[in-house]
Fold:
Amino acid sequence: MEEKIKKLSEEFFTNFGINYDQIEIIKKDENIFLIKIQTKDSGIIIGPHGKNLDAVTGILKLIILKNLENSEAVRIYLEVNDYLKSKDDRFKDFIISKVKYVEKSGKDLKMPFYSSYERKKIHDFVAEYGNPSIFTKSIGEGKERRIHICKAEEKLSIDIDGMEI
Structure:
């Protein structure tokens, strides 16, 4: 399957007029594939603020899924010159700064709208941060769904038998 995805990706970028140095297909999971492309034409693919990348990824996914057997469960991600990795690193730094704010202020923070993918990343970043008194929760439905970064309230523990009071 990786070879078929690579061949289709190479044809797509060649027909699109993109010169590339390398295309690598990484199987992340049973049905999850990362297409990594190294190119001097990254600006064309990525576009301003990653807008083109979403569109190019969508078109490439459609072409690949149309040409693969049993493709309904296959997920495709496109990484151009490590753009997504650097974007994730910046996003993580931003979220950790918000976690530190919640730690310091003790106030819960309601974040703006993020996609389900970004909310999952935020949950992961906060869990990875490792402070058990900081947690995340998603509240709302659809476009109203927001993630909150919260500080757990200190709980008073009471010794029922009274031996240590």
